[in-house]
Design a protein that fits this description.
Number of strands: 0
Helix content: over 70%
Order of helices and strands: H
Strand content: under 5%
Largest sheet: none
Radius of gyration: 18 Å
């Protein structure tokens, strides 16, 4: 039983970490696009 719980926790943590990494990348891409648009308009 405890082994299964540990496995589920590890899965949850990996899911969370991949999600947070994905959101971070999306944010960076969004900021870069915005600044690129700004530079183009200047």
């Amino acid at each position: 039983m405890k082994k299964v719980e540990k496995c589920q926790k590890i899965k949850l943590y990996t899911k969370l970490s991949t999600l947070s990494t994905f959101f971070y990348v999306e944010k960076v891409v969004y900021i870069v696009k915005k600044s690129n648009i700004r530079f183009v308009h200047m």
